[in-house]
Amino acid sequence: MTIDNDLVLKAIEKFGQSAQIDMVIEECSELITALQHYKRSKPDISRSIDQVNEEIADVFIVLHMAYRMFDELAINHHIRSKQVRLWSRILESHS
Ligand SMILES: [Mg+2]
Known about the structure:
By secondary structure, this protein is an all-alpha fold.
């Protein structure tokens, strides 16, 4: 899934970086809560899955905003090195 880059840049421009950072914090918090409900809820599991899916979508969008507001090259560097580290941990556990 690709996030609309123009939309993200316009939102940062219109609402400002500080408000968008607040959105990142708020949406991550909502995802945490939805995941906690999902792990606890047995009878109403489909509603919990819907909530988790919606909050993942929100976090996906605001993380794209965060990516644009902070240092994309540094973030890319961290993503690459963390993926390498995860691969090595996976491969270590198979040996
Ligand atoms: Mg949300």
